[in-house]
Amino acid sequence: QVQLVESGGGLVQPGGSLRLSCAASGRTFNLYTMGWFRQAPGKEREFVAVVSGSGGVKDYADSVKGRFTISRDSAKNTLYLQMNSLKPEDTAVYYCAAGSGIITTNSRHFGSWGQGTQVTVSS
Questions:
Q1: For residues 58 and 49, is the Cβ–Cβ distance under 8 A?
Q2: How far is the C-alpha of 68 from the C-alpha of 49, rounded, in Å?
Q3: How confident is the model at residue 31 (pLDDT cuts 50, 70, 90)?
Q4: Distance between CA atoms of 50 and 96, rounded to whole angstroms?
Q5: Rg of the Cα trace of the chain?
Q6: Pairing mode, if any, of strands 92-99 and 110-113?
Q7: What is the separation of C-alpha 72 from the centre of its chain, rounded to a whole number of angstroms?
Q8: What is the C-alpha to C-alpha distance for residues 35 and 106, in angstroms, rounded to an integer?
Q9: Kind of pairing between the strands at 34-39 and 92-99
Q10: By the 8 A CB rule, do 69 and 15 touch?
Q11: Terminal CA-to-CA distance of the chain, rounded, Å?
Q12: CA 19 to chain centre
């Protein structure tokens, strides 16, 4: 399994932007499918975005499509989530996760998880 550490969360006003980072350990980072999930208080964890090991295939939840961009930097072993046009409903703890190497949006297929970083969108 890979060790993951998220950063970049914080408080932002509606319409603002944040970039989340997820630093991954290990030399096999490029072999993992990487995903972002989020969990709001009292709600189940939900899929946000996923990117293939190569970085060539991406998918997003409908709720964030057109606003969020997932990317990865193989040289830095880092996953990113650029979040633009943020809405109050984006408020949640955001988690990065590493999967088996195939594209999936199901959290049960991701075996390694970060500790989460809080994103709060409020005026």
A1: yes
A2: 8
A3: confident
A4: 9
A5: 13
A6: antiparallel
A7: 10
A8: 10
A9: antiparallel
A10: no
A11: 39
A12: 10
Q: In angstroms, rounded to a whole number, what is the distance separating the alpha carbons of residues 92 and 56?
A: 27
> Pick from 34, 51, 37: which is nearest to 90 by CA?
37
- DSSP letters for the chain: ---EEEE--EEE-TT--EEEEEEE-STTGGGS-EEEEEE-TTS--EEEEEE-TTS--EEE-TTTTTTEEEEEETTTTEEEEEE-S--GGG-EEEEEEEESSS----GGGEEEE---EEEEE--
For 7-25, the pLDDT digits (tens) are 999 999 999 999 999 999 9
Tally of residues, the chain: 123
CA distance 57 to 9: 25
Model confidence pLDDT, tens digit, residues 92-119: 999 999 998 788 899 999 999 999 999 9
Whether the predicted pLDDT of 26 surpasses 80: no
